[in-house]
């Protein structure tokens, strides 16, 4: 599926709609350059699935991972990984990767750092620039 958005609010709408399709075991790989809206997309999913529209959702750039409990048993725990600072794929084991694979939905920013640990069944969300400074093209591939 390909979506064209004209603003950050459009990206949030796409992410919220996408969130309704997620289930335990889903791994979402968020690809795109800095500033494309990967964190905006993740934040919208997290807020929707936790049923907390005003939830403070910091980027896990420095902590590498944040977890969020959801009230929906079909989702379980949300794991939000930002692998930008990850030095090697093996470092994932120190921050809960194995637990995440068995207990909820995983959002991964900078999934290129997963290397050989990339799940084959992952859903890829690629966000690229649109025609204007605020527009984005969001491609979702299962």
What does it look like?
This protein has a single domain, classed as 3-Layer(aba) Sandwich (Rossmann fold). 22% of the residues lie in helices and 27% in strands. Strands 1-7-6-2-5-4-3 form a seven-stranded mixed β-sheet, with helices on both faces. A hairpin with a 7-residue loop joins β3 and β4. The radius of gyration is 14 Å and the shape is globular. The mean pLDDT is 93.
Provide the fold topology:
Blueprint: E1 2-5, H1 8-19, E2 27-31, H2 38-49, E3 65-69, E4 77-82, H3 97-103, E5 104-109, E6 123-129, E7 136-141
Parallel strand pairs: 2-5, 2-6, 4-5
Antiparallel strand pairs: 1-7, 3-4, 6-7
Query: Could you name the CATH homologous superfamily?
Result: P-loop containing nucleotide triphosphate hydrolases
Mean pLDDT value? 93
Across the major sheet, the strand order is: 1-7-6-2-5-4-3
Compute the number of strand runs.
Answer: 7
- According to CATH, the fold-level topology is Rossmann fold
Count of the separate structural domains = 1
- Report the CATH C-level class: Alpha Beta
């Amino acid at each position: 599926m390909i979506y064209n958005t004209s603003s950050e609010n459009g990206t949030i709408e796409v992410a919220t709609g996408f969130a309704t399709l997620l289930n335990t075991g889903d791994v979402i790989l968020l690809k795109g350059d800095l500033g494309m809206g990967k964190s905006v997309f993740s934040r919208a999913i997290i807020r929707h699935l936790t049923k907390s529209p005003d939830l403070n959702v910091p980027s896990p750039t420095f902590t590498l991972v944040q977890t969020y409990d959801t009230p929906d048993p079909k989702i379980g725990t949300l794991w939000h990984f930002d692998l930008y600072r990850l030095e090697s794929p093996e470092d994932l084991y120190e921050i809960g990767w194995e637990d995440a694979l068995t207990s909820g939905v995983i959002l991964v920013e900078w999934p290129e750092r997963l290397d050989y640990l990339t799940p084959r069944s992952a859903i890829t969300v690629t966000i690229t620039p649109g025609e204007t400074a605020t527009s984005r093209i969001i491609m979702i591939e299962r």
